[in-house]
Write a structure and sequence with these properties.
It contains eleven helices and eight strands. It is an alpha+beta fold. The chain folds into three domains: 56 residues, Alpha-Beta Plaits (2-Layer Sandwich); 127 residues, NADH Oxidase (3-Layer(aba) Sandwich); 42 residues, no CATH class. The chain has a four-stranded antiparallel β-sheet with strand order 5-6-8-7. Strands 1-4 form a two-stranded antiparallel ribbon. The two termini are 37 Å apart. Helix content is 40%, strand content 13%. Helix 4 packs across helix 9 and helix 5 packs antiparallel against helix 11.
Length: 290
C-alpha cells in the first residue's frame, strides 16, 4: 500500500523514545535532532507507529477517522487457553440444514481483514456463495470427473506414473477417496461441499506474488472465528485444484479474468459436537545454528 504520500507528523509532546523509528518496516521515520517522518511516501499504512507510541505523539493523516483502541492485557488469552482453542477446532463435514445468516458471514469477513498480508497489501478478495443450487452445480461439475479418473487409475502406465509422482501411499489414499466419492454420489450425497449452506472463496491476481499466502492467512482467520461462533468449516482443496484446470469451474465461481482461486472454505452449523481433543504427531524439524 506504499507509494501514496501521507501527512505524518510528530507532536510536540514526543518523548524521543524512538520506538516508531525502530518498528516502521518502511523506514519512514528517522531520529536525528528529534524524531521526524522523513519518507512518508513509503508508508504502507501498517499502523505500527501509532500503535507503539507510548504518548500518542504520532499524527498520521492516513488513518483519519479510524480508531486505535488500546490493547488490554485481560483480553489476551493465556498460552494454555489459546492452544486449547486451536486444538478444539475440527474440520467439519456434517452440517445441519440451516442457513448461515448474511450478518454472520459478514462478521467472519470482518475478522479476516485483520489477517497479515505481505507489505500490508490488504489485497485478499472474497466470493461468498450461499445459493445451494450453485454449490450443487459446482459439486456436480467436479464429481463428474470421478468415473474418468477411476478408469484412468486402472491403466497400468498411468498407475505407475502416478505412483512415482505422488508416492504409493498417497496414491492409494487418492484412489480410496475416489471410491468413497462414488459411494457418496450413489447415495445422493455431496462429497465435495458436504451439503454446506455457504462457501467462502478467496482469489488473487495471478501476478500477485503473495496472493496465495495472504489468502490462506485470511481464510484461517475465518475458520477460527467461525469456530468461536459455534460454526463449522472445512477447507475444500478439490475445488481449488479443479479451478486450475477447468474453466467451467472458474466461471461458476465467478473468478475474475487474470485472477486465480486461492482457497475455498465451506461454512455451516455442525451436526455433531466434539468432546475430546485429538493428538497429533510431533513436528518434523531440522534445527540449524543450535
Amino acid at each position: 500500500m506504499g507509494g501514496r504520500m501521507y501527512a505524518i507528523g510528530i507532536a510536540a509532546h514526543c518523548v524521543q523514545c524512538g520506538a516508531c523509528v525502530e518498528v516502521c518496516p518502511a523506514r519512514v521515520f528517522v531520529k536525528a535532532e528529534g524524531v521526524r517522518a522523513l519518507r512518508p511516501g513509503g508508508c504502507i499504512l501498517c499502523g505500527h507507529c501509532v500503535a507503539v507510541c507510548p504518548v500518542d505523539a504520532v499524527v498520521h493523516r492516513g488513518f483519519d477517522g479510524q480508531e486505535f483502541p488500546p490493547m488490554l492485557a485481560e483480553a489476551e488469552p493465556s498460552l494454555d487457553s489459546l492452544v486449547g482453542f486451536l486444538r478444539s477446532r475440527r474440520s467439519v463435514r456434517e452440517f445441519r440444514q440451516k442457513d448461515v445468516p448474511r450478518e454472520v458471514l459478514e462478521k467472519l469477513l470482518d475478522v479476516a481483514r485483520y489477517a497479515p498480508t505481505a507489505s500490508n497489501a490488504q489485497d485478499v478478495r472474497f466470493i461468498v456463495i450461499t445459493d445451494r443450487q450453485r454449490i450443487k452445480a459446482l459439486s456436480r461439475r467436479i464429481t463428474g470427473w470421478v468415473p474418468l479418473l477411476q478408469r484412468l487409475a486402472r491403466v497400468p502406465g498411468v498407475l505407475a506414473w502416478a505412483s512415482r509422482s505422488w508416492g504409493r501411499k498417497r496414491l492409494e489414499g487418492y484412489l480410496a477417496s475416489l471410491e468413497g466419492f462414488a459411494e457418496t454420489l450413489r447415495a445422493g450425497g455431496d462429497p465435495i461441499f458436504y451439503n454446506a449452506p455457504a462457501l467462502v472463496i478467496t482469489h488473487a491476481h495471478k501476478k500477485n506474488a503473495f496472493g496465495i499466502e495472504n489468502s490462506a492467512y485470511a481464510t484461517y482467520h475465518i475458520a477460527l472465528a467461525a469456530h468461536a461462533m459455534g460454526l463449522g468449516t472445512c477447507m475444500v482443496g478439490f475445488l481449488t485444484t479443479a479451478s486450475r484446470y477447468d474453466p467451467v469451474v472458474r466461471r461458476l465461481v465467478g473468478i475474475p479474468r487474470g485472477h486465480r482461486m486461492a482457497t475455498a472454505l465451506v461454512v455451516g452449523y455442525p451436526v455433531h459436537r466434539y468432546r475430546r481433543l485429538v493428538p497429533r504427531r510431533q513436528p518434523s524439524v531440522t534445527w540449524s545454528g543450535v
